[in-house]
Write a structure and sequence with these properties.
Chains A, B: This is LacI family transcriptional regulator. Chains A, B: InterPro entries: HTH_LacI (IPR000843), LacI/GalR-like_sensor (IPR046335), Lambda_DNA-bd_dom_sf (IPR010982), Peripla_BP_I (IPR028082). Chains A, B: It holds the Pfam family LacI. Chains A, B: Residues 1-52 form the HTH lacI-type domain. 2 copies of one chain form a homodimer. Chain A has 329 residues and is α/β, with parallel strands linked by helices. Chain A contains 13 helices and 12 strands. Chain A folds into 3 domains: 2-43, lambda repressor-like DNA-binding domains (434 Repressor (Amino-terminal Domain), Orthogonal Bundle); 54-154 and 290-318, Response regulator (Rossmann fold); 156-288, Response regulator (Rossmann fold), CATH 3.40.50.2300. Chain A has helices spanning 2-8, 12-20, 26-39, 45-52, 68-81, 97-108, 124-133, 156-169, 186-201, 219-232, 244-257, 274-278, 290-306; strands at 57-62, 87-92, 114-118, 137-140, 150-153, 175-179, 208-211, 238-241, 266-268, 285-288, 316-318, 321-324. A 6-stranded parallel β-sheet of chain A has the order 2-1-3-4-5-11, with helices on both faces. In chain A, strand 1 (57-62), helix 5 and strand 2 (87-92) form a beta-alpha-beta unit. In chain A, helix 1 (2-8) packs across helix 3 (26-39) and helix 8 (156-169) packs across helix 9. Chain A is elongated. Chains A and B meet through helix 4, helix 5, strand 2, helix 6 and helix 7 of A and helix 4, helix 5, strand 2, helix 6 and helix 7 of B. Chain A binds a DNA duplex (16 and 16 nucleotides) through residues 1-2, 10-14, 16-17, 20, 23-25, 28, 43-53.
Chain lengths: 329, 329
Amino acid sequence: MSDVARMAGVSKMTVSRVLAGHSVALATRERVQHAIDELGYVADAAAGALSSGRSEFVAVLVPSLASSNFSDTVRGLAAALEPQGLQLLLGDTDYDLQREERLVRSMLRHQPRCIALTGAQHTAATRTLLRRSGIPVVEMWDLPSDPIDTAVGFSNVKAAREMVRYLTERGYRKIGFLGGASDLDRRGLERLKGYQQEIRAQGLGEPRIVRLGDSPITMSHGGPAFDALLARWPDTDAVMCVSDMSAFGAIMQCHRLGLNVPGDIAVAGFGNFEVAACTHPSITTVSVDAHGIGFRTGETLLAALAGDGVQGSRKSVKIDYTVIARESA
Amino acid sequence: MSDVARMAGVSKMTVSRVLAGHSVALATRERVQHAIDELGYVADAAAGALSSGRSEFVAVLVPSLASSNFSDTVRGLAAALEPQGLQLLLGDTDYDLQREERLVRSMLRHQPRCIALTGAQHTAATRTLLRRSGIPVVEMWDLPSDPIDTAVGFSNVKAAREMVRYLTERGYRKIGFLGGASDLDRRGLERLKGYQQEIRAQGLGEPRIVRLGDSPITMSHGGPAFDALLARWPDTDAVMCVSDMSAFGAIMQCHRLGLNVPGDIAVAGFGNFEVAACTHPSITTVSVDAHGIGFRTGETLLAALAGDGVQGSRKSVKIDYTVIARESA
DNA sequence: TTGAAAGCGTTACCAA
DNA sequence: TTGGTAACGCTTTCAA
């Protein structure tokens, strides 16, 4: 910066002001800009953050960057925050609470202005770290009963119950559920819980549950899980899956077995992933506005920063979901 | 840090040493650690970076975080770099060179130790910025003729030619290509080029090319593109797609049209995405080690940092690819 | 509209 | 093994 200042014949302060877009005489500004371009000067954000006492980072943690659900959420966040000059500090927890804690610790060292994480489940140490940091926190994709600060999400339990109701309205009675075996995927567990509640509430007999494989649930989940379900309960007439990925695998398995979907058996997914619309038959699913979760989170965070910039809003932003009726159920 | 030092009855320097893992008497270290835990002290990375002159950031730019190909690459990078205490600074260029330039500029402000970007195509300003920064640069997913520094990738042209050879060896002669309409997806264009070269080389008549839609190519690409291909060249016996996403869409369209794959028409993809293995019929494709590209990139960067930490290695790391024969072609 | 000085929280360096 | 001091490159604050 001193070099630029010397070349433009001004003080460092003027260079700083030009960079920050503060008022500077036009002629001066042009001279400074010219010097910047000439020298290829790039300001040091770390020095700026140290001096001003605030960084331009926003920390974001999702379970899996590979899942289109969460990458949509990240895009929504970016759409809301990047125009404000904020930098996303992205992390992938891999559905691992310990890893989440490590990432939070590491990100907090960069003094982010605020932080968005996924889910309501965190280690005690994570919660302590976040509270002590004092910065605005948003938990996404769920509506925790005991939020750290703000939440932007929806009830996975209720959404799953709605899907069961959709299926029973269509006349299905012997409804199975395909989910993951791991307890780390809380949202998956909530969906399972919703399924169980609604099956019980409607008196549809014992729940037919297959839990298989690790999170994230991938396309290769559906086939084996479907086989396991039919092996145990051969008269099942509809299958509800914890995610569209699994539903897709189940439908492909039906193709292989020569089963007609939904004629012989109906299949429903969750999440409205791209594959759901493109598969033949197209997959009935619960559509969640993943991008919207990110964007609303971004807006919420911006509002908190525009205020006092500390945590404590304790708002809950509810995100809509809807059952999308397609061909498979 | 002063607070911690006071509480532990030592100087700030000793606290710094404990944090950095330098040699400190055990008793002292324990007292300091206790004070750190007690106070919930989190060191300021920005101050550390400023003082030491080096950050712990690695900048990474991919065209799309949502594409499992690139998210696998990011995971590979994280696997190689996070154990070294490096923080990924992730950006999503959205296949937009201007956006890439903005992101590079913004990331360079954080003084990353090194940077990995995707592809060989960048704006002139981006190239200048990167050269002037002096930090090690890796271009991934391609083997540029004029690399900025190091490259880790493979020839998309050659890989596509290999797929055409696979198809002709299987007896297919009237082979079409489904790709995107945008010239921004350079790797897609290279694949198209490889297709054309090999069709010409084998004297298979005029190339049958459909270019439709924007990058990234999604599952909804394949159906309409497939229809366009058959409308123009009804006797086509095999379709080669720029990506598995498109191939999947094409196969679903075949299901709808009652066409047997590969009996009536063969379909091949590119990338070995998860969907390729799970679709019925499973999709013949070119498998690229996306995770390996990330991991090798990480290793390359670590080697550069362990050396002088500046750009100029000019290596080219070739990544393997193979045609995976499955049911669809 | 511009400049000078102080200081942000850490680490490098040298000294004890 | 530990401590004191001087940076690091910027922004804040106050003065001109």
